[in-house]
Amino acid sequence: MGQQSTFHAPHGGADFLGWRKRAGATEIVYDDGVTRRMIWRVSTVAASEARISDALRVAVGAHRIIPTLYDELKKRAIAIEKIAG
Q1: Comparing C-alpha atoms, which of 5, 46, 10, 8 is closest to residue 22?
Q2: Per residue in 40-81, pLDDT tens?
Q3: How many degrees, rounded to 5, is the angle at CA 64 between CA 43 and CA 53?
Q4: 59 CB contacts (<8 Å, ≥6 apart)?
Q5: Alpha carbons 12 and 23: distance in angstroms, whole number
Q6: Which residues neighbour 49 within 8 Å (Cβ) at sequence distance 6 or greater?
Q7: Cβ neighbour number for residue 78 with a 10 Å cutoff
Q8: What integer pLDDT is reported at residue 34 of this predicted model?
Q9: Which pLDDT belongs to residue 1?
Q10: Span 21-40, pLDDT tens digits
Q11: Could you tell me if 57 and 42 are in contact, meaning their C-beta atoms sit under 8 angstroms apart?
Q12: pLDDT of residue 12
């Protein structure tokens, strides 16, 4: 069974969060729909897709998506490194 990999903000914004596999690495992508696009590489090898999806789901539902994303990833012991944005 596959996991949902993309999420859109429910509060009327165009904010988008998603994760993808690229060259064997998992990346998290944020786009505000206007000017800002950020990409992070997940550096925690044991980070499951379900744990990443849970963190993204909570973050995209918040009004302050990026700070919430950092908090949710930290709670789940998922380390990331920024690669773009």
Answers
A1: 5
A2: 999 987 788 889 999 999 999 998 999 999 999 999 999 999
A3: 40
A4: 17, 65, 66, 68, 69, 72
A5: 33
A6: 3, 5, 19, 26
A7: 20
A8: 86
A9: 32
A10: 888 889 999 998 888 899 99
A11: no
A12: 64
Tokens of 72: 């949710």
Secondary structure of the chain in HEC code, one letter for each residue: CCCCCEEECCCCCCCEEEEEEECCEEEEEEECCCCCEEEEEECCCCCCHHHHHHHHHHHHCCCCHHHHHHHHHHHCCCCEEEEEC
Side chain identity at residue 22, one-letter code: R
Reading the block at residue 22, the tokens are: 């690229």
User: Tokens at residue 58, please?
Assistant: 């909570």
